[in-house]
Each structure stands twice: as C-alpha cells, then as structure tokens.
Write a structure and sequence with these properties.
Layout (H helix, E strand, L loop, with lengths): L2 H34 L2 H8 L10 H10 L1 E3 L2 H17 L4 H15 L3 E3 L3 H16 L8 H11 L4 E6 L6 H14 L4 E5 L5 H14 L2 E4 L6 H14 L4 E4 L9 H14 L3 E7 L3 H14 L4 E5 L8 H9 L4 E5 L7 E3 L2 H8 L3
Parallel strand pairs: 3-6, 3-7, 4-5, 4-6, 7-8, 8-9
Antiparallel strand pairs: 1-2, 9-10
Helix pairs in contact: 1-3, 1-4, 1-6, 4-5, 5-6, 8-9, 10-11, 12-13
The protein binds guanosine-5'-diphosphate (GDP) and magnesium ion.
C-alpha cells in the first residue's frame, strides 16, 4: 500500500540529508579555519569565498560545534522541486502537491536539525506537513451513533451505501455487518441492488456466512420498497442496524439518481455513505460532490487501499474531500475494514 509515495519521500529524505551532511562537512572545515585564521583570509586562501547566502557563517559554526545544522533554502529548494514532480508522477493532484511542498518548505527551511538524527528530523517534518494536509478524522463515530440510537430505543440505525459499480459497496456492507455484530449489535442487510440478479445473491451469501438476516426482492424490484421492508423487519425483530445496499450508478445517470433520492425519501437513513475506490482520485472527488447534491452524504469509505500501489490518488482525496472519510477497505476479508485515522496514512507513507 502506497509504495510509490513511500519511495518518493524516502528519496527526498536521502537526497536532502546527504546534501546537508556535505554542507556540514564544509562548515566544519571552515569552522576549523576560523579558529586559526580570519574567515576572509581562510576563504581567500582556499580560493573559494563561497559563503552560503542562506545560512550565516555564525549559524554554521554553531552547527559544527553543537552538532546542529540549519537546512538552507538553497539546499532544500532543488529537492523540494524534485519532490513536487515526484508527487505528480505518483498521481497526487496538482493543487495538493503544491500545498504539500509549500508546507514542507515552511516547516523545513531554516530549521535546525541535529546532524546525527538528521534523517529522522527531516522525516518528522514531512510527517507534520502530511498531517496538516490530510483531512482530520471526521469525528463521526458510526458504531457510537448506532449504539446511542439503540439505547434510546428509537428504532433501527439505517445506513444507505451508494456509489459506482464495483467500488466495493456489497463487500463493505458485509464488513460493517461483521463489525456491528462483533460489538454486540444485530443487523439486517437490505439487498437493494436489484439491478443485477447476481448482486442479490452476493448479499445473501455474505449474510449467510455472517449469520445475519437479509431481505431481498426479485430482480428489477423497487429498491426503496425492499429497504422499507428491511426496516419493518428490523423493527418487528428488534434488530439494531439496517445496512442498505444499492445498485452501482454513475452520478450522470439521471433515472438512477432519482431512484436514489426516492430511497432516501422513503427510508430516511441515519447515514448516507459513499463507497469509492481510493485510486479513483479526482474523478471520485467529483462523484462525491454530485452524489452529495442528490443525497446529502455523511461520509465516505475508501476501498481497495491494499492494492493502491502509488497512493497519490488516495492522498489527493484525503486532502481535498469536503465529506468526511469514515473507513478504509483494506482487503477482501470481513476484518479488512480500518477506521480512518490520518496518522495511519502518514505511518504508511513516512514511517516514524
Ligand atoms: N482488494 C480489495 N478488494 C475489494 C475491497 N473491497 C471490495 N473488493 C472487491 O471488489 C470487487 C467488487 O466489490 P463489490 O462489493 O461487489 O462492489 P459493488 O459493486 O460496489 O457492490 C469484489 O471482487 C470485491 O471482493 C478491498 O478493500 N480490497
Ligand atoms: Mg454490489
């Protein structure tokens, strides 16, 4: 996961710390000279006179003595520029790459780093910059919300899942059912993707494996009415959560979007959750916007991050989304659902 980004940032750390090490060596040499001969004379003697314009000699001497060096702007800029290009190659979108590099510039340049722990300190600054760029955790605790509704006896907690075909809605519903069941809440799955007969069967198979109930209609039946039946079933059997599947659709398909609006109108879900592939990047951000207009979205679940080799698209979504990220899908097993946490992302890109 995110190997592409990991490599690019690692190259940046190696490059910049190598350069700074060389600077430091030169500084030590100069500092030595300073003790015996006046600087100008020393420089003249060596014929270099190349006083670094970005870091004062005093700072550099202090660096040599105290074992700390200051990251010079002139040193850092070429590496930051390389990083910007590298991020674009990893599919990070232009704005996000710009923002990230600007942050990194602000956080790194003129920072004094220990010459011994230089790599670690540079890595820490990248981690800080990434943290500042990523969307904070949404604060929506889905499990807690469901539990509260259960405690208040206000009927089942209803979640509608929507998004493009093949994104992982049905699989994510199964994962959520597993998670709810694990925390002591009972579920029913509403197999409301009536667009494909196989999709109904897929929900039924998951439900059987998980030992949860499933309400299914026939191929082509009205998805809103199946969800309605599932909610009634949950009420009658005192079940805590209704997980409502839906047929995959593009935001441009008007009739399917109308159908979605009807599902929301009829069933009044507590949460509308968009499920999309992290690798979809900018197009996913666009879909999220459009779906948000049709059915006010409460959150996004990004799937298939386990097969996201580059990571740039996901990073762009995580930096630019206006709808909070709730979970990550990290594989095909029921347990492969991870609560979204920016630190988890940062740990995977720049290990601490
Ligand atoms: N590697 C991986 N595959 C996933 C993940 N989530 C779903 N899938 C696979 O993606 C395919 C489509 O998933 P499905 O749930 O049917 O998508 P839907 O059309 O949105 O309901 C299936 O083969 C799933 O096993 C994930 O997080 N990681
Ligand atoms: Mg499906």
């Amino acid at each position: 996961m995110f190997e592409g980004l990991k490599k690019k940032f690692s190259d940046f750390v190696e490059g910049l710390s190598g350069k700074e090490k060389k600077e430091e060596a030169k500084t030590e040499e100069r500092a030595e000279g300073q003790r015996t001969v006046p600087h100008e004379q020393h420089a003249a003697k060596k014929g270099e006179g190349e006083k670094s314009p970005d870091v004062t000699l005093a700072t550099k001497i202090k660096g040599a003595v105290l074992g700390r060096v200051s990251v010079g702007e002139k040193d850092a800029d070429p590496f930051l520029e390389q990083l910007r290009v590298a991020l674009l190659q990893t599919d990070v979108n232009y704005d996000v790459a710009e923002r990230l590099v600007a942050r990194l510039h602000d956080n790194l340049v003129n920072k004094e780093v220990s010459s011994r722990d230089m790599k670690k300190e540079i890595r820490d600054e990248i981690r800080n910059s990434l943290m500042q760029t990523l969307t904070k955790n949404s604060g929506i605790d889905v499990m807690q919300r469901a539990r509260e509704k259960k405690q208040k006896g206000e009927g089942p907690f209803k979640i509608l899942f929507l998004g493009p075909n093949g994104a992982g809605k049905t699989t994510t519903i199964a994962k959520m059912a597993h998670m709810f069941k694990g925390s002591g809440m009972s579920c029913v799955i509403s197999a409301s993707d009536t667009f494909r007969a196989a999709a109904i069967e897929q929900s039924a198979i998951h439900a059987k494996r998980l030992g949860v109930d499933v309400i299914k209609g026939t191929y082509g039946a009205d998805p809103a009415s199946i969800a309605f039946d599932a909610v009634a079933y949950a009420k009658a059997h005192d079940l805590d959560v209704v997980l409502i599947d839906s047929a995959g659709r593009q935001e441009t398909n008007k009739s399917l979007i109308e159908e979605l609006k009807k599902m929301v109108r009829v069933n009044k879900p507590d949460l509308c959750v968009f499920v999309g592939e992290g690798i979809a990047g900018n197009s996913l951000l666009e879909q999220v916007k459009q779906f948000d207009q049709a059915a006010k979205l409460d959150g996004v679940i990004l799937t298939k991050l386990d097969v996201d080799a580059k990571g740039g698209n996901t990073l762009s979504i995580l930096s630019d989304t206006t709808v909070p990220i709730l979970y990550f899908g990290m594989g095909e097993k029921y347990t492969d659902l991870v609560l979204y946490d920016p630190k988890f992302v940062v740990d995977n890109i720049v290990p601490g």
